[in-house]
Specification:
- The structure is a single chain.
- The protein is an alpha/beta fold and 711 residues long.
- The protein is built from 16 helices and 31 strands.
- Helix content is 21%, strand content 19%.
- The strands form eight sheets. Strands 12-13-16-19-20-21-22-23 form an eight-stranded parallel beta barrel.
- Strand 6 and strand 7 form a beta hairpin.
- Helix 10 packs across helix 11 and helix 14 runs parallel beside helix 16.
């Protein structure tokens, strides 16, 4: 090994920047006193072939350490070592004996970290520990890869920037989408395999995919054991980021260092060619470095007191608003800039269309942990000029008790609406005193969003998501079954508002299955005719189940993987979903950008609510029935013509309901579009609505939903 004499280099941009004659390296460390860059020839090398010593006189500007290494090229591998005070009580945890990842690294090698940590590993707690500390696993530590982002032909591609009113989101997992052998792709469980399956998404009429985390994480971080099989469980979902600028290398079919970059870019490009946007689920609330007992991978060893929220008078301890050991110090100016740099990078270099921010309330916490009503970070994200057309979606709560639904700071933010999930589940379960809440959710949740000046599209409506029951399990289990997660079934939410229809779990009973299928149709159709932006959990359209597991974060196996055999078994529900999405996208009346205003002297009300007898409902009465008429007014269809009027009735009662239909004008007549009780034709083909024999009355069967169109 030799020390290379490098040139001073430049402080910006951060990370490793390739040029024709070498690579510029730039790293932030305010409290660090020494920086060494180690360069490796192979990803499995234990010892670097060369090192560069950054001297404060030549290689430091302010808090930025920088150097230019002539002759290096894209594909080079590197790590850092940083020295400084080891004073945990002051928040400093520098350890020169520890290799560190570059926070701005554009790719990492696909090397597990936590699987290779010795069972007797303990983090250093004082200066004497530092002297004795010796990393004997450096060959098993991932390397940073120098990436040339110009080495990809985008063929003119750019972000689609589709409006939220035209958006139907499909939440899915990159690996789980195609991991099952029966999926029929050449590269299962990879970016390339996902690319092969895009035609399926296009068939469904999906307009945007929301991917569970693809920023580099380590699936071996989970040390729990499956009590049934004895196998070590995984961090399958990926909500524990190791590096924010790197796509997960393990999801690439091409295992060469850095190859994940172009493979993921190709996935984005192919999605865009098919008119499908890509939204990334991002986790800026914490990192994989854990609490005071955790492992230094990057931020902790570069400047722990800057990157994390620490307990004020005991800075050896971490605030834990994430529930995962630490909290990223999001509104510290340096960290805030880092997050903005990351978002801009993914939009400019990967053409990403949007981001969903996990436990987003942490983004509005101050350095002392307080919730800020005017959070600098969330406001900057919403106002950033490069991100101006990028979709930004908040999960508006965190594990520290913050709950900001409808009050998330920043003008452009959409928000996951868990009130929609709960009220719609409870309504279709037949709960009492919930019809008013369900009607409010279907109308766009104005009680939540209107006071902040937002419209209904700010509400991300969902009945199911990755975190909880799938739709199949929602109608098949009364309680969670998480025994295989290795936590004694204590994990996961107990408030599921589910109903198994008479049998717990899978059954061959045809009567039970008919009821479950109808309830799935009810949920899907309610979601797609509600005002707001709908999000479908991937696989719900063919009743993908997880054996009652409502917290499958650790199940990298068939429990979580898509069972594509369900496509043929439940082809009718899949086709029902496709037609329902097409129906929504055809009619603007279901995709309003403003809340309902009622009627005027010049036009009828844009929405009218009805009791079964055709009169206005008494919302104070206990009812399991909701019905309303949507008047087209100024709404248009997808072809630009005036939209239609619609009558929609939902009967969650155990008895059939005879309804009196609204009287139509101008010789228009009611035609049936959908009736979820009809097992043969629950949703007609586009343009084939059936004329009703009786224009005055309609029987809405128990536990079903109907849609009538006027024409």
């Amino acid at each position: 090994m030799e020390f290379i004499k490098a040139l001073p280099g430049k402080p910006f941009p951060f990370g490793a920047q390739v040029s024709s004659d070498g690579v510029n390296f730039s790293l932030f460390s305010r409290n660090g006193t020494r920086v060494v860059l180690s360069i490796f020839k192979d990803q499995n090398d234990r010892i670097p072939y060369a090192q560069v010593e950054f001297t404060p006189e030549e290689n430091r500007t302010g808090d930025i350490w920088h150097a230019f290494v002539p002759g290096l090229k894209a594909g080079s591998l590197y790590l850092y070592q940083v020295d400084g005070p080891f004073e945990p009580q002051k928040g400093h945890r520098f350890n020169f004996n520890q290799y560190l990842l570059d926070p701005y690294a554009k790719a990492l090698t696909a090397t597990p970290i936590f699987a290779n940590i010795p069972s007797n590993y303990k983090p250093p707690f004082d200066k004497d520990d530092i002297k004795l500390f010796k990393m004997d696993r450096d060959h098993d530590f991932p390397k940073c890869v120098v990436v040339d982002n110009e080495d990809f032909d985008w063929e003119g591609d750019k972000p689609i920037n589709r409006s939220m009113s035209e958006t139907v989101i499909y939440e899915t997992h990159v690996k789980g989408f195609t991991a099952q052998p029966e999926c029929g792709v050449n590269e299962p469980g990879t970016y390339a395999g996902f690319t092969e399956k895009i035609s399926y998404l296009k068939y469904l009429n999906i307009t945007a995919v929301e991917l569970l985390p693809v920023f580099e994480f380590d699936e071996t971080e989970n040390s729990n054991i499956n009590m049934r099989t004895g196998e070590r469980l995984k961090n399958y979902w990926g909500y524990s980021t190791v590096n924010f600028f790197s796509p997960k290398a393990g999801y690439a079919a091409d295992k060469r260092p850095g190859a994940c970059v172009n493979e993921f870019k190709n996935l984005v490009k192919q999605l865009h060619k098919n008119g499908i946007e890509i939204i990334l689920d991002v986790v800026f609330n914490h990192t994989a470095e854990g609490n005071e007992h955790g492992v230094a991978l990057s931020f902790r060893g570069l400047d722990n007191s800057i990157y994390y929220n620490l307990v004020a008078n005991h800075k050896e301890y971490y605030m834990n608003f994430s529930g995962c050991g630490n909290t990223f110090n999001c509104n510290q100016p340096v960290v805030r800039q880092y997050i903005l740099d990351c978002l801009r990078y993914w939009v400019s270099e990967y053409h990403i269309d949007g981001f969903r921010f996990d436990l987003a309330s942490i983004l509005s916490r101050a350095e002392d942990g307080r919730i800020l009503s005017d959070s600098p970070l969330t406001i900057e994200i919403s106002e950033d000029p490069l991100l101006r057309n990028t979709k930004i979606i908040a999960e508006p709560w965190d594990a520290g008790g913050a709950y900001q639904l409808g009050n998330f700071p920043g003008s452009r933010w959409a928000e996951w609406n868990d009130r929609f999930r709960d009220d719609i589940r409870r309504f279709w379960r037949g709960d009492d005193n919930i019809s008013t809440g369900a009607a409010t959710r279907i109308a766009g949740s104005s009680d939540i969003f209107a006071h902040e000046g937002k419209g209904p599209l700010a509400s991300i409506n969902y009945v199911t998501c990755h975190d909880g029951f799938t739709m199949n399990d929602l109608v098949s289990y009364n309680g969670k079954h998480n025994e295989e997660n290795g936590e004694g079934n204590r994990d996961g939410n107990d408030s599921n508002w589910s109903y198994n229809h008479g049998f717990e779990g899978a059954t061959a009973n045809p009567q039970v299955e008919r009821q479950r299928n109808k309830q799935v149709r009810n949920f899907i159709l309610t979601l797609l005719i509600s005002q707001g932006t709908p999000m479908i959990l991937g696989g719900d359209e063919f009743r993908r189940g997880q054996q009652g597991n409502n917290n499958a974060y650790c199940q990298d196996n068939p429990i979580s993987w898509y069972d594509w055999n369900c496509c043929s078994m439940n082809a009718d529900i899949m086709e029902f979903t496709r037609r329902a999405i097409e129906f929504r996208l055809t009619h603007q009346v279901f995709r309003r950008s403003e809340f309902f205003r009622g009627g005027t002297t010049m036009s009828p009300p844009d929405i009218q609510w009805f009791a079964p007898d055709g009169k206005a409902p008494d919302w104070n009465k206990i009812s399991r029935f909701v019905a309303f008429k949507l008047n087209e007014n100024d709404c248009k269809k997808d072809d630009g013509s005036d939209d239609n009027d619609f009558y929609i009735a939902m009967n969650a009662d155990r008895q059939d309901v005879l309804v009196t239909l609204p009287v139509l004008e101008n010789k228009k007549k009611w035609h049936r579009v959908a009736d979820t009780s009809d097992e043969v034709l629950p949703f007609v083909k586009k343009g084939e609505a059936e004329l009703l024999r009786s224009q005055g009355r309609y029987v809405v069967p128990s536990g079903s939903l109907i849609i009538l169109i006027a024409k």
